[in-house]
Predict the structure.
Amino acid sequence: MVKKAFIFDLDGVIVDTAKFHFIAWQRLAASLGINFTKEENEQLKGVSRVNSLKKILEWGNKEISPEVFQQKMDQKNEEYLDLIKSLSTKDIMPGVHDFLLNLKKQEQPIALGSASKNARPILQKLGIRDLFEVIVDGTDVTKAKPDPEVFLKACQQLNYTAQESIVFEDSVAGVQAANRAGMISIGLGEENILHEADEIFTHFTDMPQDYINTLLSYKK
């Protein structure tokens, strides 16, 4: 049987945590006197915490000391962790669980490639931690998407090449990272935003029933 490395982003692909990130960033921005919009939040998808705060400061035309910068990053993470305490299996994105189980049934290797530093506890809360052979998150990389480091590490740990890897992403930066690595990029979201992806679906439930087999024969 043909095998490929299936690599998934976390936020917005596997679990609906985007709303929690938005609330936490909005509160932080407000504490600095900055108005933070949903449109700006879209631009933070797949971006590290450090670079996200830098962008917010740029949009608000604000400067803060390194000490305050660290305090604000810690504040955002604490608020986010408090918000996700309520996470459960009901927060898994539509169709994802079945898709992962079908991959397991076909003995396809599965990895997580996420900028989140909270990936492991989130997967645990969702009850799907054991479905992932490899987890590469924000604690394992130094370069943020659109740099492909997180995806390259994931496929290397699965012992597959980039050309044998398929990435599922909901952010422009994530799709660009997959493309830069030479991987197949599957966008989850709106076509007008993720138009650089090789294929785009709104949800996993929109994929054809035999889509895994299609991906196994897909050549970029």
Notes: The CA atoms of residues 28 and 72 lie 7 Å apart. The first strand starts at residue 5 and ends at 8. The chain has a mean pLDDT of 94.
